[in-house]
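This is your field. Please look over both lines of this record.
***
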Amino acid sequence: MAEVSPTGSPACTLQTHTRLLFDCVERLARGYVQSDHVKYCALEMYCRFAPAHEDAQIAQVKRSTPPGREREEGLRRLRARLKQQEPLRALTCLMIACKVAGERDANLLHPNVTPLTVQTLLETMGYMYTVGDIVRSEQRVLEQLEFRCFKTTTELELLELLMSAIVLDNLQDSVRQGFVMHHFMTLLDALYRSSVRLLGSALLNRAEIYVEFYRLIKGVREIHPRHR
């Protein structure tokens, strides 16, 4: 699906990160990650790590090379390397999320996500990394995030907060017992599962949704630079 939001905008960037990490989970790591919470925690980490890491690397190149052709070539090579490393970084965040969120304790019947697991998954994608490379990637991610793995509330946690508000608003004395209560909880479970699917779809198409929303509010499709 083509990006319609200006390149480099927050909508476009988040959408790109979401697609990459969700693709890693759905196509490769499905047997290892059984929790939506882990997936969204990994996304939150990756969305913080990727731009901060890129900014730090760019600053280092600018400090070490004078303005001119040499610097531009250095920045070009840097961006190409960072692009190639994206699956490694995304799966590293997923591995960290599994550790911190207690995925291993919650799913004892499923294999653990280890550096060897990540190595195998990357090989499936055509990338060759050693276990040592993956361990160093984990260290790089943690250091860049200053070991603050879950710094902000994830989109899924916000959704669950909204669902909790719905429950409190509708759970009156008349529906706390019996068939009505059972029916209410069944509908609530279906609503939750549908909402999680819609949330994933919204994140995967965030740029398009933002452009359409902007058009409805402003009456134009061209997004002003200060609104990107």
Q: What stands out?
A: Residues 10-227 form one domain.
